[in-house]
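Re: beginner question about structure tokens

> Can someone show what the tokenized structure looks like for a real chain? I only ever see the sequence side.

Sure, here's an example I had lying around. Input first:
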Amino acid sequence: MELSGYLEAQRIRRELPNETHEERAIKRQAHLDLLVRQAEFYKLSNTPDYYQAKRWLLEAIKIEKHHPIANYRLGYILYREREYEQAAYHLKTALDGTRTDVLSDTQLILANTFLVNCGVAITREALRKLEDLELQIEGDIDQERIDRYRAEMVVQDEYVLDRIYYRKIAAEYETIINEETFHETQPGKMEILLKSSDAGKTLHTAGRPSDLLNQHMFLTIVLLNQATFQTYPVLQSALSELSGQDITYDHMRQLIRRIRDRFTRLDLIEATPIVVPGSARPVQGFRIHPNWSVTILCRADDFIHPIQKERSDV
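And the corresponding structure tokens:
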């Protein structure tokens, strides 16, 4: 795969100078697509090689600085490597897109989720550095000016960040709420309210007790909250990235079945056969039934759980 991809890339490079402008644009796009596919091969293989994946993605970005998919893939790898500032740059670039290329709905959700987590991690690191500097610096400083700007800081320490920073995510907007609002918010008619906190992950609907969900079920419902139908492979890939765990195809099928069985009376999930490129026959697609609206309440760093397991001080 690597050799054939390399040879194909070299062939395209050799032919570019001899093409017309239109032909060159087509070849250029083919070259970009090839580089991104090569990166995905290394990233998604049984033994992922993120070094090689980054190498191919950087090659793609050299050709098209704002390429959404290349920046999204690179941003995700850097995010998993805890290079949060670089990851944030590439994720933001991916979200901005280009005139001709944009991320899919699923990728938009994931990129924004990763970007929030990067912001939280960067804020925490800056707070730690600030605290260290205040303890270490003994020379003359303009304390009055420092205090004036320090008072403008939205977050003064990590404890405040963890306690007050909740997000409310609805169909058309996202806003910051406090802890009291988080606990007092109740679902409206035909509204699914998903809550994630230290107490666990729960699903609420009007007129019935709340349901406690495990992480995979909770995130799957989040991913199904889209206008377009999502296939098993798309959900499998998205859940693997969002949870930081290797989700198998069979496990993804079981998750969908369990959610449908558990919430049969709610008619929570709508399923329909859809046609996807490269498939000889229709495949099943899923989404939250459009009769329902979905609101998500969670901490700003709620989806950092996989990273926290690896590094408790993130």
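Each token stands for a local structural state, so reading them left to right follows the chain. Residues 304-314 have pLDDT under 50 and may be disordered.
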